[in-house]
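Revision sheet: structure tokens.
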Amino acid sequence: MKALVKRAAEPGLDLVDVPEPVVGSGQVLIRVARTGICGTDLHIRSWDPSVRSMVTPPVVLGHEIAGHVAEVGPGVDTLVEGDLVSVEGHIVCGRCRNCRAGRRQLCPNTRGVGVHRDGGFAEYIAVPAGNVWRHPAELDIEVAAIFDPFGNAVHSALAFPVLGEDVLVTGAGPIGIMAAAVARHAGARHVVVTDVSQYRLELARSTGVTKAVDPTSVDLRDVMSELDMKEGWDVGLEMSGAPSALSSMLDTMANGGRIALLGLPSSDEAPFDWMKTITSMLTIKGIYGREMYETWYAMSVLVAAGLDITPVITHRFPYHQFDEAFDTASSGRCGKVLLDWSEV
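Predicted:
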């Protein structure tokens, strides 16, 4: 089968023929239809220092996956051939304290699909049946393909109650935009998004946020005044990893405000205002991935209730144009970029 492989510890990816995976006990084989390109995939392609310790080539990349069940392994009775599915890309041990307590997202032994083991940039992928989320047959398969990053957005946006609250989202990447849309859908009063990319600010505006602004040219305190906010942001969603974004968020939070941190800083030296955090009695929560599987349930309910995340999907490429697709995803002038494997 065709697969997109990181073959060596150096920049680049290769489209090559690899053996089709064998389905073991408790697993299912998925015929991949669409895959999304994630920031992690971009880092692995470039062979950035941040990912070198995680990846051991050769490995098939890709963890944002949608397709149909092609084969069911022994012992699987929850899925049937033809089911439309997405994949939860964090495979946990099932034996540690957190797994046994139902807190699987906290498993310290997690293995990442498309990072630590072969992923879904391929015609087929075999995964444990417990990592497969079945969708209604009528769901748009492109929406199914971005349930992984959508889950990050939902996990972040619903980390704290947002009904009637003023929410600041720093970072208008696809996950940030989806998180803003979720917060609006969940009843936030004002949702303001910041970014330095005009393209992504326009994309955020198309989803119905209150305001989308460039913080290098617009002061957040002026935005607060325009919206008649008296004390500061009730909830902050930091999605960019930019130290300046976190700094501006901490500086404008209301006393008792709550912050969900998803964006990974590019430097270990990212500044953090401990004095503001303590004296304003802020709550900080780190977000990594999705709650398994409460977030998946929430995602399905949100989509069924009418939340439209399709505007965040801006580019689509056939799988063999992967270089162009990755270049587009790296440019910043895009939302989610999908690879189409249906014509292999």
